[in-house]
Specification:
The complex is a heterodimer of chains A (238) and B (483).
Chain A lengths: L1 E3 L19 E10 L2 E11 L4 E5 L6 H8 L7 E6 L6 E4 L13 H6 L14 H13 L15 H14 L4 E4 L8 H17 L3 E6 L2 H7 L2 E6 L2 E6 L4
Parallel strand pairs in A: 1-5, 4-8, 4-9, 6-7, 7-8
Antiparallel strand pairs in A: 2-3, 2-5, 9-10
Helix pairs in contact in A: 3-4
Chain B lengths: L14 H23 L3 H24 L9 H26 L4 H22 L4 H9 L7 H20 L1 H9 L1 H8 L2 H23 L1 H15 L6 H26 L3 H19 L4 H22 L17 E3 L3 E2 L12 H8 L5 H4 L3 H15 L4 E3 H4 L10 H10 L5 E14 L2 E12 L5 E12 L6 H18 L1
Parallel strand pairs in B: 1-3, 1-4, 2-4
Antiparallel strand pairs in B: 4-5, 5-6
Classes of the chains: A alpha/beta (238), B alpha/beta (483).
Chain lengths: 238, 483
């Protein structure tokens, strides 16, 4: 198993270099938990500005792959190279995974994205609050910033969580089932938002979905996972 | 009776206890808020019980001679046991959590039951120290000394500073562990820090206030605050404010109504939860109106409560005749005998040579002597009822009954009757008393003056129970004659 955050360690790997250096490279990587691999021989590179879709049925290992990329699980075998610090990962969890017990406003949720830059005794900087307003504007949710996060609809929650990930100032965004529990109209607007983020802000966007049709429609690259196997499909036309 | 504003006076005898309660009321909810949000409320119940087991265990070790007696007194040794058991318990529960075996609730319930059983068993093993342990576990904040208050203020002050400084980290680790890992590194560091602070608060709090009150302060204000807020910052602030309200109103009610502080505070905290859920169902305008109404009611009560009760009147205003001072009636079912300071008498008692009841002074004797002395200073001509007839019994505070007995004994004029209903001095730090005093006209049973003393009387300078009773008698008589 080889694990690195060092850019130099992926130099000289022409298979993954197509004009720009990939932010993440996985080579023959197996991911899973201590008891056994969930996915084996993952070969994947994610470049800036690319919209990568991870498709597969429920329980196929999508979240396990994401958790490995985020450093929450060590890879079981093979190579995983991250070309940027973990603090540059904008992670959007499934909103259903967040505990509605917490009394949190939309603005408080978004401000969490800046916590990595705020010191313990420091008052939350005004410039970060201003930036939080800006990312909320960007996702079209500024008008609900004072509302309780858990009072929002599924689609609104996802957009707020995307705003939080944007406040991290990420190089790559990882979204776990961003369209789950979201109505049709919101699905369209979230999909448009993800496309804009990859095209206009040159962000690497890696999202998962069990809706293969939708992934095929929008993604530059499709990673299919099923029964422990992984297949990567490049789509030049997108 | 202590008035609303009187208890805020720093010279008030129970002022350290009040400040200690307020400190716990403000700081505990800061920790408890996270226990509530992380759905680990039962940890707030189990850890105090484990701390109590530590107190009981260390007292047993002390009794067996394995642990030396410390110079600082009983609380130091209890605190040591409380701290060690709390952190050991947290470590064990954390280890089992990591292994992920069994239900979390099941582990906490088993730990709670085990700790409760251990507490009782070690008390049974240690009959000599049973009362001391029970007193510590009851956690009478009322017995808090100024030195203990300083320790409490320093430890809880540090805890609150750390809680405020790392509030963002604690929120992140509690709400979204994955994001916490990405932005702040290893989550376990923040978990350990949070539980370390919880352990400190619980271990020290159990010794100062008992397991029940600490559990109440940890979770009840947070549960009451939750339905009223939609922001985390407001939640933390409101939890602390409600903790403060619970501590102050509970303390005042406890003093005013002579109720034990722990159960009073916890009952009040539970009422706050019902009130909060009720308020959350009405409009913001109605909520404001209800809160304003409540504040007005409290203010009116505070102002009315601040009146002082009348002292014993001047002699010329009562009667030109002698005033009969009856024996003090003891209605406590306890003998209330004062311990002897003479070791030779104690030896004689043990040898069965002297019956202690034959000669030993009681609280009633002491109280009567003090009353006689003060009444005479006020200009009363005092006659003792036994001077008329040696068989004269103590008179009850029931005016009709007292007047009838006095008339049957051929007395006339005015009689001073005193009756003790409660006299509890479990430690030398305070005496909990309930006693009635009345000046009764014998002819018609009319009450000329009356006063009820019902409160815990601090006796900080007493070194034994007898001295505590003597100090309490002096305090009561001073109160009767000065208003």
């Amino acid at each position: 198993m080889k694990l690195s955050n060092n850019e130099a360690s992926i130099a000289g790997k022409p298979a993954f270099v197509a004009g720009v250096s990939p932010l993440i490279v996985m080579e023959n990587t197996s991911v899973g938990y201590g008891s056994g691999a969930v996915l084996t021989d993952v070969n994947l590179a994610i470049e800036p500005g690319k919209l990568v879709g991870l498709a597969g049925p429920n329980g196929s290992g999508k979240t396990t792959l994401f958790r490995t990329l985020l450093g929450l699980l060590p890879p079981l075998r093979g190579t995983l190279v991250r070309n940027c610090a973990l603090a540059k990962f904008g992670y959007v969890p499934q909103s259903a995974a967040l505990d509605p017990q917490f009394p949190l406003s939309v603005l408080e949720i978004v401000e969490m994205g800046a916590y990595g830059r705020v010191q313990p005794f420091q008052v939350f900087p005004a410039r970060e609050t201003k930036r939080a307003f800006e990312v909320l504007e960007q996702v079209g949710m500024a008008h609900v910033r004072g509302k309780s996060f858990f009072a929002l609809s599924g689609g609104q929650k996802q957009r707020v969580l995307i705003a939080r990930a944007l406040l991290v100032d990420p190089a790559i965004m990882i979204l776990d089932e961003p369209l789950a529990g979201v109505d049709e109209e919101s699905r369209e607007s979230i999909t448009d938002l993800l496309i804009r983020l990859s095209r206009e802000q040159r962000l690497a966007v890696f999202f998962s979905s069990h809706d293969l049709e939708m992934v095929q429609r929008v993604a530059d690259k499709i990673v299919r996972v099923d029964k422990g196997a992984v297949a990567v499909e490049e789509r030049s036309g997108c | 009776m202590d008035g609303f504003f009187a208890i805020l006076n720093p010279s008030y005898l129970l002022f350290p206890a009040l400040v200690g309660t307020l400190i716990m009321g403000v700081v505990c909810p800061l920790i408890g808020s996270y226990l509530v949000l992380r759905r680990t409320i039962f940890l707030g119940l189990t850890l105090p019980e484990i701390a109590a087991a530590g107190v009981s265990f260390t007292f047993w070790l002390q009794q067996t001679g394995i642990l030396p007696k410390l110079a600082e007194g009983e609380r130091s040794i209890g605190m040591l046991g409380s701290l060690v058991f709390t952190f050991l318990g947290m470590g064990l529960l954390g280890y089992l959590e990591q292994r992920g075996k069994g239900l979390a609730e099941g582990r906490l319930a088993a730990a709670y039951a085990f700790a409760g059983a251990v507490t009782i068993l070690f008390m049974v093993f240690n009959p000599a120290g049973q009362v001391d342990v029970l007193n510590l576990l009851k956690g009478e904040v009322i017995a808090l000394s100024r030195g203990e208050l300083k320790l409490l203020a320093v430890v809880f002050g540090i805890v609150s500073i750390v809680m405020i400084a790392y509030r963002r980290e604690f929120l992140l680790i509690s709400f979204d562990r994955d994001l916490a890992f990405l932005l702040k590194g290893r989550q376990i560091v923040w978990d350990i820090l949070l539980y370390l602070l919880a352990g400190l608060v619980i271990a020290l709090g159990v010794i100062m206030a008992g397991p029940l009150l600490i559990f109440g302060f940890l979770v009840l204000p947070a549960l009451a605050a939750k339905p009223l807020v939609s922001r985390m910052s407001s939640f933390l602030v409101l939890s602390s404010v409600l903790g403060l309200v619970m501590a102050f109103v509970g303390f005042y009610s406890s003093v005013k109504l002579d109720l034990p502080l722990g159960p009073t505070d916890v009952a009040l905290g539970s009422c706050l939860i019902f009130l909060a859920y009720g308020l959350s169902r009405v409009s913001a305008r109605a909520r404001l109106a209800l809160i304003a109404g409540g504040l007005i009611a409290v203010s009116v009560n505070a102002c009315s409560a601040s009146r002082t009760e009348a002292p014993v009147p001047e002699a010329r205003a009562v009667s030109s005749q002698p005033v009969w001072l009856a024996k003090v009636k003891n209605s406590t079912a306890l003998p209330l005998l004062l311990p002897s300071n003479n070791p030779l008498r104690s030896l004689a008692e043990m040898a069965g040579k002297i019956s202690p009841a034959d000669y030993r002074q009681s609280v009633m004797d002491l109280l009567r002597q003090s009353l006689q002395s003060e009444l005479e200073k006020k200009g009363f001509q005092i006659s003792l009822t036994e001077e008329k007839d040696a068989r004269f019994p103590p008179l009850p505070s029931d005016s009709a009954g007292a007047a009838r007995i006095a008339r049957d004994g051929r007395l006339s004029g005015v009689v001073f009757a005193s009756e003790i209903f409660r006299w509890e001095g479990e430690t030398q730090k305070y005496v909990r008393a309930l006693a009635d005093f009345k000046l009764i006209r014998i002819d018609d049973g009319a009450v000329i003056w009356q006063r009820r003393v019902q409160r815990a009387i601090p006796t900080p300078s007493a070194t034994n129970l007898g001295q505590a009773s003597a100090d309490a008698v002096r305090a009561i008589v001073r109160e009767l004659f000065t208003g």
